[in-house]
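Shift notes (night). Ran Signal peptidase I while the centrifuge was going.
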Amino acid sequence: MEITTSPHRPASTPWGRLVALVVILGPVTVLVLLPIGLGLQRYVMTGDSMDGERPDGIPRGSVVFERPVPVDDLRVGDVITYRPPASAHVDGMVTHRIVAIDHSGIVTQGDALAEPDPWRLQPDGSVVPQVVFSLPWVGYAYLVLGDPVLWLLLLGGAGLLAALLAAGTVRSRRPAAVLVGAGTGGQR
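Came back to this:
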């Protein structure tokens, strides 16, 4: 019986490495640098309040790209991001749709909520960030970067994968056993 080894995988070329690098880093670079170049701000949707039944709803984990717009240019139906009044006891920024604009302020509501927000927005500046477009699912990568527990899981998984790949490489480099005298029909 003859044992043969399998052919080795060809080594990757510098061009192959460059293509892999561009495929991996290209989208990340576009998501980080392009908005800055276009004057856009980006936020990650961490809640479900805008994930309603509207076709232009924004689900959790989406990255929203926004442009500062003068308050006078805002219209009913626009989606804006703002900090609620201190009396609302809401931490962080809120991204909701404008449902009414009158002399007492701007009324907003999340697409998935039954009632408008209980506060009136009184913009203290001359501009408010308005959503231009959003990319669903992309924001989960940003959320992982901000959570230490998910970082540990990600690094642990990468370490486990590296250990498994290293074990497979060591196993495949062992010399093959040679069988001597198999099937020769020798004497007892």
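The helical segments are 14-37, 139-145, 148-172. The chain has a mean pLDDT of 83.
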